[in-house]
């Protein structure tokens, strides 16, 4: 494409005029992209002189960082330098406007249809539990982090551990941990779940609890004796190299103690009130008989064995 120097100049000034007139990041982005097409080296420096950092913001609009991307830093004392993202929001009148993206963390969906656990956990319960409570936790977290928070961009694991702050939790901890706990909880169940684990997981449970029935009794007992709201967990203890049952109050998640969770059960009343009223015992029994996913638990244990050697070391002899 041949463009004369004169027409280049006129295009440059036209674009700058449009930008100056509209003053929107969106138009800046168009000019930015247009400048590459026409190879106009002077245009960016002109825009930069006039609008400064807005040019960078416009660039982000057209080259957005994927929402699933996380900025990971081992040193949380260093503030993350993350550009402001800009997106267009549909307005009722069909036009668009630019606004800052604040919802960095997304709501994960359960790995099954919302009615797939019927009749043991109703769609009505999951609609409310996942669609309202879980969503509120993630929206609350995003709101807490929206102002260039030092924690903005951590993985959820990092966020939970960092905000726990060795037992003196930051304000973000409850929302972060409840997001983590619920993501884990939905995946701890499956349609046609319950019954007994198999193979390696069953053997490990029998080794650490004597028998599956002993384990079951202890898990149910922990769930029923938890005071107030919280969670019961089957975890792999790194130091003890064994499975154990732990109870946590409110939002606390055992990864803050470096445990490796295998299964969790939500014991907040919102998890079972619609289906079982205040009959926690019935809810726990149904979870063990029909909902818990031993398939997922077996995968998690196998993953955990990458960090914890549960048997005698098998070191190849040269
Ligand atoms: Fe819950």
List the helices and strands and how they pair.
Blueprint: H1 5-22, H2 25-38, H3 41-51, H4 54-62, E1 86-90, E2 96-100, H5 123-145, H6 156-164, H7 173-187, H8 199-209, H9 212-225, E3 230-237, E4 242-249, E5 260-266, H10 273-276, H11 280-291, H12 294-304
Antiparallel strand pairs: 1-2, 3-4, 3-5
Helix pairs in contact: 1-2, 2-3, 2-4, 5-7, 6-7, 9-11
Bound molecules: fe (ii) ion.
Main location: plastid
Domain Manganese/iron superoxide dismutase N-terminal: 105-189
Keywords: Chloroplast, Membrane, Metal-binding, Oxidoreductase, Plastid, Transmembrane, Transmembrane helix
Structural summary, described in words:
- The chain has twelve helices and five strands.
- The model is unreliable at 1-98 (pLDDT under 50).
- Helix content is 47%, strand content 10%.
- It has helices at residues 5-22, 25-38, 41-51, 54-62, 123-145, 156-164, 173-187, 199-209, 212-225, 273-276, 280-291, 294-304, and strands at 86-90, 96-100, 230-237, 242-249, 260-266.
- By secondary structure, the protein is mainly α.
- α5 packs antiparallel against α7 (173-187) and α9 runs antiparallel to α11.
- It is globular.
- The N and C termini lie far apart (66 Å).
- It has a three-stranded antiparallel β-sheet with strand order 4-3-5, with helices on both faces. Strands 1-2 form a two-stranded antiparallel sheet.
- The longest helix is centred in the middle third of the chain and has 23 residues, at 123-145.
- Fe (ii) ion (FE2) is lined by residues 129, 133, 182, 266, 268, 270-271.
- Fe (ii) ion binds at residues 129, 133, 182, 266, 268, 270-271.
